[in-house]
Amino acid sequence: MKRVGVRCDVGPARGVGHVMRCLALAEEVRRRGAELVFVCDAHTVPWAAGQVAARGIAVNPAVWTPQAHVELFGALGLDAVVFDSYDLDAAVYAAVRATGLPTLAIVDGDFRGAEADVLVDQNLAAELDQPVLPRDSVRLAGLPYVMIRDEILAHRPSEPPAARQGAVPKVFAFFGGTDAFGAGPHVARALVATGLPFEATLVAPGPALAAQIAAVESQPHQRLQVIGPTDQLAAQVRETDLTISASGTSTWELLCLGATAGLVCVVDNQVMGYERAIDTGAAAGLGLLSALAADTSSAVPVLKRLLTDSTERGRLARAGWELVDGRGRERVADALLRLI
To answer: What range defines the domain where residue 44 resides?
Structure first.
């Protein structure tokens, strides 16, 4: 049996996006008969650790130096390794590749010094960029390579979704496994500021954020409910009229599900992806989190349109469903397994 290692970032400040897309690829690779082992500090985010454990995947603590990676990967008996990191020194990639171990690196625009036999940039319009590639590397770019987890694929509609018709729109809002930038309370205040009726469920990964959201004063015809991290994310999305999330890895999951997506750009390195997503017409933009934090009214006009116009919600949902077909992980797994 072939053995594939996954070295990825995770942490309270880094979030769980790297783990989530690596799990999508891991599910596909394991479906084809390979064994997986993760190398990361999953224990720092219990929800992420639970996701890895639920799939029966072994986890080794993260190592950081080039030599430590070479020694660990040798001890684990790996046949290939997947990197997905913003934090690793570029020398790690070079050292591992120099041993002859096949490598695949998941990147977002800037390679950050990463080198690998295969570089995957699953971001929208990434295929339009023409970066200089490391020696003997190939690059897979654009939405055809978006990696989607089993949980999401199981809830993907078989046909373009129709607009939901309801007297009071249902809203679901989540910002990754940690909501590292505290977007939840600001989105809650922006929703309330519309003055319109809604039933909103917001995910708060910790008690402090939950308390801040609960403290937002809503009007009698508005409902704000706070829940903790959920394994039923896809089901929640399918049951709501509007899903609000950070512009990042979860964006492609929402589009694959045919969700009406409202995106918040929570950090600078998401700006390009955020702008490209909005430009497709498949998602609505609520703006930068910094602007939302300064003045929640900046997002009110867009939220009002999304809460009141079911035709617009349906148009966004159909456009997203058509953009992300859910088969990207198959294409990436093909490229990875060809290296072995």
So the answer is: 3-148+326-339
Beta strand 198-203 with 222-227 is parallel
Q: Phi and psi of 222, rounded to 5°?
A: -120, 145
**pLDDT band for position 267 (cuts 50, 70, 90):** confident
Write the DSSP string, 115-141: --SEEEE-STTGGG--PPPPTT-EEEE
| Single-letter code of the amino acid located at 63 | V
Query: Is the model more confident about 106 or about 182?
Result: 106
**Count of domains observed in the chain:** 2
- Shared-domain flag, residues 73 and 220: no
Mean pLDDT check: name the lowest of 170-174, 244-248, 285-289. 244-248
Residue 227, token pair as written in the block: 């829940």
CATH number at residue 244: 3.40.50.2000
pTM of the model: 0.84
Phi then psi for residue 135, to 5 deg, are: -60, 135
Closest by alpha carbon to 241, among 260, 256, 264, 254? 260
CA distance linking residue 144 with residue 325, whole number of Å: 8
Kindly state whether residues 239 and 114 are assigned to the same domain. no
- Mean pLDDT of all residues in the chain? 93
The pLDDT assigned to 124 comes to: 84
User: 313 CB contacts (<8 Å, ≥6 apart)?
Assistant: 163, 164, 241, 242, 260, 306
116 and 74 inside one domain = yes
CB neighbour list of residue 338: distance below 8 Å, 6 or more residues apart: none
Which of 118, 160, 178, 164 lies closest to 255 in space, CA to CA?
160
Residues 214 and 116 in one domain: no
